[in-house]
Structure formats: C-alpha cells, structure tokens
C-alpha cells in the first residue's frame, strides 16, 4: 500500500516575503512526494479544522480564542514570532487537524506522515518559537479521548528541546516525552521531559545515531506505547541556520530508518510530523524533509504490509 500522507492547501499560508519562516516548503514537499513516487494521490488525506474543544484540551480557552480572533497582545505575538493573519489561523488549525488525522491513520496502517506539524514550543497559555498550538500534545489528548490510544510516547528529535510538550505532560504518566536536542540551542530555559538527552554542538552522524540507539529500544520496552508521535525535525542538519549539530542527508535518512524500523519491529504505530528546518535553499530543505517520508514508505512496505 502507498504511504498515507496528510496535506491540505491551507498549509501554505501567505506571509510577508521577507519573513524567515519558509511557509512555501509545505506545498513544495507535497509536490515533491508525488513527483518522486514516494506516495500516490489516492493516499493523500485532507484534514479537518479541529473542534475548539480539542484545542482547549491542551490550551487555555482564553489563549486559544484570543489567537483565533486576533486579539493577542503585541508582546504575545512577538513571542510567537509569526505575524497574525486570518490565513495563518486557518493554516495553524488545519495543521493541528493534520496531526490528529496522521495519528488516526498511523493506528490504522502502522505508519503515517503529516507534511507539517511539530509545534512543540507552544505552552497552554502562550505560543513561542514559531509555535502557536501544540499539535503533538493535542493529538495525544484527542487519541486518548477517542479511546484510540492510552499510553503514548513522544519522540522529539528536533534540534530544539520540546519544552512546551514537556511542560504540558510533566505530571502525566500516560504520555512519555523524550527529547534529544542540542544543549546550547533554543530555548534558553529548558523544561524537564521524562527523558532529556542534551547533545553537544557539532555532533555528527555516527555519534548522534549511537546515542539514539542507546535509548530508543529500551524506551519502547519501558513505556510500551500504543502510539508513537515522532517529531522528525531536520534542523539537526549541518547546513541548517538554526541548528548547531552536524548531521548529513545520509545521517538524517539513517535516523528516520532507525526510529521507524525500531518501532515497526515491535508493532508500535508511528505518526510522523516534519518539525523544524530552516535552510534558505527551499529545494534542499524539501528534499531533507522528504527523507522522513521516503523512509516511512520503505518501512511500511517491509514491516507493516498486510
């Protein structure tokens, strides 16, 4: 079967040309996945806008409503780092719906991938670091509320610590947060995940993958999750402007294969989001993000078929 992919045209929200966050990558990723035969048009699913109650299962009603209506203070907007617009509200909510749908598809098929998501710096009452609503946390809560999964493991391999996610689930044993990130990078004040693995600047492929291998298999055995939510940020790449680590394209692909095949070998469904990536070369960035989907298609075919 073709890899289930979640995408919606709303993911490409119009923003000022000079803004450094490359919204254009979402549409280009969708087109690249089809052009490369990594998935098929019939396997692309369009998410719905999530109900307000689902957003408010993680975020305070005051914050969620203020953002949707455009009434956040200027200070709160600066903390997010993205200019408010009705189009961005639509895109943000749709991407959250995308991660929810990706989790549902992963539970049905073994692996599924969003073409957005990974907004792990959003806290219940404020957004931060380009993150408005925490799609990982909301998807985890919705899966639990729908009775589709109870024990959830969040594997966050973005170069930045998933501080919002860690704080949201700090007292909740039903959601285990694992963050492997560059120690000297954003955020300056880290939260405490269930397992944090801080990494030194300049860590290369072999060092990174050895550290990951020393934690992930044991963690899966320990947590026994019904579902893994995987944040596959590519800002760990040596060429990323906001990274500080030194993974190559090959190293990223090996990482994705390592995570996905380890989970598949234990029959643990994995819902993947693309996380961060901040290269000025959008074509290179899209190809980097697509390594996740390429690996997922391979693992789905070899481990999850039938």
Can you give a write-up of this model?
Helices cover 43% and strands 11% of the residues. The protein has 306 residues and is an alpha/beta fold. The chain is globular, with a radius of gyration of 17 Å. The model has no long low-confidence stretch (mean pLDDT 95). Strands 2-1-3-8-7-4-5-6 form an eight-stranded parallel sheet, with helices on both faces. It has one domain: Histone deacetylase domain (Arginase, Chain A). The chain has helices at residues 24-35, 52-55, 61-69, 74-80, 86-109, 135-145, 163-168, 205-223, 249-265, 282-304; strands at residues 5-6, 44-45, 111-114, 152-156, 175-182, 195-199, 227-231, 270-273. The protein is built from ten helices and eight strands.
Record the strand order, biggest sheet. 2-1-3-8-7-4-5-6
Tell me, what is the CATH class?
Alpha Beta
Q: How much helix is in the residues? A: 40-55%
Main sheet overview: 8 strands, parallel
* Structural class label: alpha/beta
Tell me the CATH architecture.
3-Layer(aba) Sandwich
CATH H-tier superfamily = Histone deacetylase domain
What's the helix count? 10
How many domains would you count in the coordinates?
1
**Bulk shape:** globular
Are there runs of 5+ residues with pLDDT below 50, and where?
none
Mean model confidence by pLDDT: 95
- Give the number of DSSP strands: 8
């Amino acid at each position: 079967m073709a890899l289930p992919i979640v995408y919606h045209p709303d993911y490409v929200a119009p923003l000022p040309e000079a803004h450094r966050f490359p919204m254009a990558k979402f549409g280009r990723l969708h087109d690249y996945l089809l052009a490369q035969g990594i998935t098929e048009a019939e396997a692309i699913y369009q998410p719905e806008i999530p109900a307000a109650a689902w957003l408010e299962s993680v975020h305070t009603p005051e914050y969620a409503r203020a953002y949707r209506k455009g009434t956040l203070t200027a200070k709160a907007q600066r903390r997010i780092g993205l200019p408010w617009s009705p189009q961005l509200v639509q895109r943000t909510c749709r991407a959250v719906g995308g991660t929810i749908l990706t989790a549902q598809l992963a539970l049905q098929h073994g692996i599924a991938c969003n073409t957005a998501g990974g907004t792990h710096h959003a806290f219940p009452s404020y957004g931060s670091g380009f993150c408005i609503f925490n799609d990982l946390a909301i998807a985890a809560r919705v899966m639990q509320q729908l009775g589709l999964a109870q024990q959830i493991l969040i594997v966050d391999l973005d170069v930045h610590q998933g501080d919002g996610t860690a704080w949201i689930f700090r007292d909740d044993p039903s959601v285990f947060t694992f963050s492997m990130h560059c120690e000297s990078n954003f955020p300056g004040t880290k939260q405490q995940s269930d397992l944090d693995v801080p990494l030194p600047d300049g860590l290369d492929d072999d060092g990174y993958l050895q550290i990951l291998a020393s934690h992930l298999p044991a963690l899966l055995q320990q947590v026994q999750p019904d579902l893994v939510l995987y944040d596959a940020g590519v800002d760990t790449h040596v060429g990323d402007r906001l990274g500080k680590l030194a993974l190559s394209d090959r190293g990223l692909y090996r990482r994705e294969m390592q995570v996905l095949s380890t989970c598949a070998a234990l029959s643990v469904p994995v819902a993947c989001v693309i996380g961060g990536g901040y290269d000025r070369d959008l074509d290179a960035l899209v190809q980097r993000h697509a390594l996740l989907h390429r690996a997922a298609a391979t693992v789905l075919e070899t481990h999850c078929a039938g």
